Structure prediction request, 972 residues.
Amino acid sequence: MIPSSVTRTPRWLAVPLLGAAVATPALAQEDPIKVGILHSLSGTMAISETVLKDTVEMLIEQQNADGGLLGRELEAVVVDPASDWPLFAEKARELLAQEEVDVIFGNWTSVSRKSVLPVVEELNGLLFYPVQYEGEESSENVFYTGAAPNQQAIPAVDYLMNNVGVERWVLAGTDYVYPRTTNKILEAYLKGHGVSDADIMVNYTPFGHSDWQNIVSEIKAFGSEGKKTAVVSTINGDANVPFYRELGNQGIDAADIPVVAFSVGEQELTGIDTAPLVGHLAAWNYFMSVDTDANYDFIDAWIEYTGDEMAVTNDPMEAHYIGFNMWTEAVRKAGTTEVDAVKDAIIGVSVPNLSGGYAAMMPNHHITKPVLIGEIQDNGQFSIVWETPSTVAGDAWSDYLEGSRDLISDWRKPMECGNYNVVKGSCGGSEAQEEATAEE
Amino acid sequence: MKIPPCLGRMLALCLLAWLPLAVSAQDDGGQPLLESLDAASYAQMGEAIEAIIESGDERSRGWLEALLGGKLQRHKETGRFVVVLENRGRDWPVADALTGEAFGEMSRRDLDRLGINNALRGQLQSALAVLDLHVPDTRDRREAARALLGDVDASLVEPLEAVISGEEDAEVRRLLEQGLAIHRLEQGSVEAVASLEGSLNSRVRAALNSAARSDDPALAEAASSALADIEQKMKLNRGLETLYFGLSLGSVLVLAAIGLAITFGVMGVINMAHGELIMLGAYTTWAMQQLLPGQPGLAMVLSIPAGFLVAALAGIAIERGVIQFLKGRPLETLLATFGVSLILQQLVRTVISPLNRTVVTPEWMSGSIMINEGLSLTLNRLYVLGFALVVFAGLMLVMRRTRLGLEVRAVTQNRAMARSMGIRATRVDIMTFALGSGVAGLAGVALSQLTNVGPNLGQNYIIDSFMVVVFGGVGNLWGTLVAGLSLGVINQVLEPWAGAVLAKILVLVFIILFIQKRPRGLFPQKGRAAEG
Prediction:
């Protein structure tokens, strides 16, 4: 299987090039490495995903300016899945089967990733997924450069519990898989730390919810019981703007009831006047305000690339930056862009992140990240108030959920398994994975 | 290759050694105070803040405010303290923190921010509030006294008592006494409960709640009975609050639907691009604010006519370009206008940006007005509620009292007869559609204050708009008003116990059942109009 795919690709490419090779022998060396970009450029998710497409294009441009990769040019192949989940799968197939791209950078929502997953596995592609997600997944063909719950949610709750002294919790989220799974993990975690049922309020709202009056007023009432209260928000996308506006207008001060958000970054804050929100928190692995030279260089390059002096950078962009550099590093290490070789080579690769440290690819296809807690400032930026002393390795299977607690993922030989059950001592295959996801 | 970096480092060292000397030459005691702020831990920073307050330096207020806003920063190379005047973009204008003298722009790279956290922010806010207790403006003093509720500690008791005895305003005195009472309550004083009785302030309630859980049975009992009293009063408050929330949500529905009540209700055109006309109104507000930077209030007022015009012109284009060719073919109209809506969305995405735009809320529209301490009405929603009623009244006036309104009614009731009476039916069609579209634009102007201004804005309102118009009775403006407001109230009454997702579903189920019973809505058209 492996040798055949190694030889097949060059031979296929060599056929049309044979004629040209006579005239310009160097050309065979220069056929470009194709990089697929699978981000929505229209529809609901365009708001978040267009900047990621631009980021990858910028990284490709930079790489080409530095002489390309393995002496070859990189070429971006951009498709638009239009925020339509089944279309993601079709476009992924188009990228892998027709365009024959060597790697794909793409997806934002978990549901779009789940739709692409079988295609990437079937056609043996490489997918770099840059967004924080709910975990409970590990695929041989996917590299998760965003945060798993233990790299974002759990440290944030720890911070609130230990540094702020929060005793009462509101878990507010949008009604879909990421918030529901994350809140389930958090609820289990909080109860494990002696928080009683009465001190946890869970609230779900539909996508794009815009009328927050009642919920904010409820939160206010919930918070006036004399115990320090905090809101853990997994509210997604557009709904955040009216939510924060309502918070500001009803006068919920960060000093009284802080809100810590997992889906609100610099990008989302560009739509709001942040003056009434100063002090509310967000947990990420990168903030634009990180004070390192690598970050300032990245910001300068981004501003130059977009031509917008006010352009902002955010966490998923950094994830693509890390993912892209890891991939180029692995290709250099393997000496080829061939998928199986790159997959083996990338484990253990370590590249600088933008916050002054290093990110390493773990055997479970997740990476190590520092966790940062930032407070919103009046200029739409975050001021970092706390960070983990060292980087945290992403955990594919949560330690706080039944059914996923016993699973580990290790894609190195000889295990090569995404959901190895340490109790049963066997690789679960797709069955255990389904079982674990069914429990969501 | 190795020598230059070394040289560079030496030079930097030299500069470092030399520049602080130059700074300290003009120093006057402020420098060490600021120096101590640049501490390793937040606890040390807290002590440094105390020291600054105690120093009585007249610049201390400016420093504390800058620190609170994250604008007190330090130049990395020279160690000089600066106040950032404007912190957007890459290069920031700065002023010297000690002398207040402005000296051009500095790169963000070269500055180190003195960061604070929420605990320090609380400390700074109460420190500033204590300073504010001495300002001449009574409103500011009340604000300051309110901010101190729950933040009074032992060190503040004496100074506050002194302030109370010298204070003329009764409200400020009352608030400060409550603040002191909360402090005494936290110390376990049972008498303090008496002075807190009946207060609806949430910090007072929080303090009483924790006192009710205390180990001292006398204190716990006193606090519980005071709380029970407060709860009684709160019940009425909550009822009023829910009603306000409902009316406010209802007014949004009415605004979104009222334009549709004209185009769909009166003219009978199913316009799926109605939501995008709302979006155009919202984008006009944004564009207006870009044209008039720094004057969001004026821009807001000007966008009312501008939003109307932009949406009305777009409406005319849609009517002339698409709808006129599809008269009497509702299914084709539906599909064609749906296409128009997608085109408009993508147009905005490509031309402006797929990202949401910031629409600034003018000063006079943000915050809330306090009815009593447990009930405050958010101002932006109050304005939208008023605006919806004004738009509705204006529209009623146009339909009932103007020639256009008369002609519109004539054409929709009997087109052939109206034409034979000399009414130019085509012109009336255009004017009516422009009117309905323009009102959608007005809705957009109002919605820009409540929700995201982005390409998807319209999509979120199109279903709700149709729902309101159908529920109210097609062709009846009063029906739209009543339907919008009542659906809003029903939704908000259901929400606290059913949750937002279920409340929405319940409202839809209710409408389906209602339409089964009364297919023509709340206020069906009667007489000749009904046949049109």
User: Anything to note?
Assistant: The first strand of chain A starts at residue 33 and ends at 38. The radius of gyration of chain A is 22 Å.
